[in-house]
Write a structure and sequence with these properties.
Elements: H1 7-15, H2 19-25, H3 33-45, H4 55-60, H5 65-82, E1 90-91, E2 94-95, H6 97-104, H7 106-120, H8 126-154, H9 159-165, H10 168-179, H11 196-210, H12 213-224, H13 228-248, H14 254-274, H15 278-286, H16 289-301, H17 313-327, H18 333-342, H19 345-352, H20 360-372, H21 377-389, H22 401-424, H23 437-440, H24 443-447, E3 454-455, E4 463-464, H25 467-481, H26 485-488, H27 490-493, H28 501-521, E5 530-538, H29 549-552, E6 560-565, E7 575-577, H30 584-602, E8 608-617, E9 620-630, E10 640-643, H31 659-677
Parallel strand pairs: 7-10
Antiparallel strand pairs: 1-2, 3-4, 5-6, 5-9, 6-10, 8-9
Helix pairs in contact: 1-2, 3-5, 3-6, 5-7, 5-8, 8-11, 10-11, 11-14, 13-14, 13-15, 13-16, 14-16, 14-17, 16-17, 16-18, 17-18, 17-19, 17-20, 18-21, 19-20, 20-22, 20-31, 21-22, 22-31
């Protein structure tokens, strides 16, 4: 039995290493500062780095290895209790000696924590025990971080002491706990093994590292050296923490609801910074982290009966930041946009239009950037589901009601048109993306359309029915489009107007859709005539940064022209319909362009073909992408051109087009279709 009456004896025997007497002292943490400092010294004495036994000695129970580990575990438990006594660390004249005690022994403490976590934890009920260990260690490390902040604020710590608190060992331990991998089995913990309280401790620790350039560089360096399995486990762990926050909003506990938004505002920026690492970004997007970020934001704001208030401003700005983050990573655009739409980012942005402190145009442009992705089929269908199941709210902004409503209506209409375009080809799987496909298509493809197509091995974005078609398309255009080949041919590609493969496929889809509309509606149609749908991308003349719209005679990104071509007429002249300018030079170029398109398709036996030509207008190059359909037996040389162009000044892109410029061109094209349909 331990003599509880002799306090002095308990302290003396505890200092000598008596485990029972140490437990007695730790029953209640001392309130007097001199006793607290004495207890700190005793605990850190048992956490000396030199006392860590070799794992083989521990398993064979050699020497004092078992006793040293048992003392260390008790000392670590004592430090957890000490985290509730933070006021002891700051006195009226600055940090107390306790701060310096903690800093001086940080290295040994972290070494012991790593050893316990990896080797000496009890083997029974590992799931719950490791969860407890993570929670305890997180609290201790958070204590160290707060001590560091105190020293910095009070100028009480030397550079060496502060550097020790941000050591590589501490970073390694935090990463190990964050990923929640059982160090013995190397198996990732199930999500229910970490509670929300532990998550908040780890989040604060991550904030301590992630917002410092130096420590963030160490973090990414460590991640790059990880094997794939560790990277996957780490990414999955991050997403599980988002899921826990998501689930917390459905909890009836008011305190949980109040805590989750604050925790989320720390977790979301942390994940966005981590996603700057290319390897982590690939793993994160597969785990739907954008969706959970968006949903947590949405649930922070809903349900609410209050109008958008300043306290929500950060959440709305974060929604805008998610979209901007997506735009900076073209390789995840399609999948990422779908996740943001599912997470109701569109709804949050629409509500942001009503917030008085926001610039209306900025929020609207962010919405338009998101909408530009809807040219892709999967994204367009998500937009359609969103508008059908959950109509966008009509924001009210004092003095700007009509403008906001107009923005919202344009957004919805454009989204529906993009969906309609994608819907036209949903059931028509692509067999070959070579524009001259039918000319080179092998006989077995004609007789057996189910023959498997082959992907480009470089970018995996385009399909070909045969190697012949692939060779033809490679020489004609895909060598400049292919993301892998473009690195080798970058200098040559810079001299031409280059699309990304997905942009070209989107243009093909819109061209097919628009020509089908012309046939169906019979607009300006002659039964024996032919139709041309053309999109022009124009390069910037050398030495010019900005060119007014009128000098281009059409939008620099594209001009939209629909041509109805009747049978050959006895008249040699050309009748121009709806021409926006009387510039003779421009009319000659328009006429020559259509002739070139028809001539390029004259030798084909098909009545529906794509054409891709390059011409010169003035000082700049024009790449025309067109869909031609004829009803007569042969192509006609005379034609009637109808063109609808909106006059305004714009900034033309420099070749090759950047992803954002291509997206803007897609959006302008959709808006042009809206204008024509009014």
């Amino acid at each position: 039995m331990v003599d509880l009456t002799s306090r002095a004896q308990n302290w003396a025997l505890a200092e000598q290493g008596s485990i029972p007497h140490l437990k007695v002292i730790l029953i209640k943490w001392p309130t007097r500062e001199h006793e607290a400092q004495r207890l700190w010294k005793i605990l850190f004495k048992f956490l000396d780095k030199e006392l860590i036994p070799d794992i083989e000695e521990y398993e064979q129970d050699l020497g004092d290895s078992r006793i040293n580990v048992e003392r260390a575990l008790i000392a670590l438990d004592g430090l957890v209790d000490a985290t509730d006594h933070l006021p002891l660390f700051v006195g009226p004249h600055g940090p107390t000696p306790t701060c310096n005690i903690i800093v001086e022994h940080t290295d040994g403490l972290i070494s012991w924590m790593k050893s316990v976590f990896r080797h000496y934890a009890p083997k029974t009920d590992q799931k719950d025990h490791y969860r407890t260990i993570i929670e305890k260690f997180s609290k201790i490390l958070l204590l160290i971080s707060r001590t560091r902040n105190i020293l910095e604020a009070m100028d009480g710590g030397s550079p060496i002491q502060l550097a020790m608190l941000k050591s590589y060992s501490m970073l390694d331990l935090i990463l190990t706990m964050w990923a929640a991998i059982n160090p013995e089995t190397q198996v990732f913990f199930p999500p229910y093994s970490i509670d929300r309280r532990t998550t908040s401790y780890l989040l604060e620790l991550f904030e301590f590292y992630i917002f410092s350039d130096k420590s963030r560089a160490l973090l990414f360096e460590e991640m790059d050296a990880w094997p794939k399995s560790t990277t996957d486990a780490f990414a999955t762990s991050c997403i599980y923490r988002l899921q826990q926050l998501h689930q917390g909003f459905s909890d009836t506990n008011v305190e949980v609801k109040a805590a989750c938004p604050g925790t989320f505002t720390l977790l979301a920026p942390t994940l966005l910074i981590l996603a700057a690492n290319k390897r982590m970004r690939r793993r994160f997007i597969r785990c739907r982290y954008l969706y959970y970020c968006a949903m947590c934001l949405y649930l922070c704001l809903h349900p609410t009966s209050e109008p958008v208030s300043p306290k929500n401003e950060d959440h709305l700005r974060m929604a805008q930041g998610l979209v901007e983050h997506l735009m900076g990573n073209p390789d995840i655009i399609v999948l990422g946009t779908r996740q943001l739409i599912e997470g109701r980012v569109v709804t949050m942005l629409a509500e942001g239009l009503s917030y008085p402190a926001w610039e209306l145009e900025t929020v609207y442009q962010t919405m338009m950037k998101l909408l530009a992705q809807s040219a892709f089929q999967g994204v367009a269908f998500k937009f359609y589901q969103l508008f059908e199941a959950d109509p966008l709210p009509t924001p009210v902004r004092e003095g700007h009601d009509a403008q906001v409503k107009g923005f919202k209506d344009d957004f919805v209409r454009t989204g529906m048109i993009m969906f309609t375009v994608a819907d036209q080809t949903r059931d028509e799987a692509s067999l070959c993306d070579n524009l001259e496909h039918r000319e080179y298509m092998p006989n077995q493809i004609r007789t057996r359309p189910q023959t498997p197509s082959r992907y480009c091995s470089g970018c995996h974005s385009v399909l070909y029915c045969s190697r012949t078609c692939q060779k033809v398309d490679w020489k004609a255009r895909h060598r400049d489009e292919c993301t892998r080949a473009r690195r080798k041919w970058r200098e040559n590609a810079a001299d031409r107007i280059v699309f990304r493969p997905l942009t070209r496929k989107m243009l093909q889809t819109i061209a097919v859709f628009y020509v089908d509309v012309l046939f169906r509606e019979g607009r300006t149609a002659v039964d024996t005539g032919s139709y041309v749908f053309a999109i022009d991308f124009r390069a910037v003349p050398p030495g010019k940064q900005y060119i007014p719209f009128d000098e281009f005679l059409a939008r620099p990104e594209f001009s939209l022209a629909t041509s109805n071509t009747p049978r050959k007429s006895k008249r040699k002249s050309t009748r121009e319909v709806g021409r926006p300018t009387k510039d003779k030079k421009a009319e000659e170029w328009y006429a020559q362009r259509v002739r070139t398109l028809i001539e390029s398709s004259r030798d084909t036996g098909d009545r529906s073909v794509f054409a891709d030509i390059t011409t010169t207008y003035g000082l700049h190059e024009v790449r025309t992408f067109a869909k031609l359909v004829r009803k007569s037996e042969e192509w006609d040389s005379s034609y009637i051109v109808g063109n609808s162009v909106v006059r305004r000044h714009v900034y033309p892109p420099s070749p090759p087009l950047t992803p954002m410029q291509e997206l803007q061109a897609q959006l302008d094209l959709a808006q042009h279709l809206i204008d024509r349909g009014k």
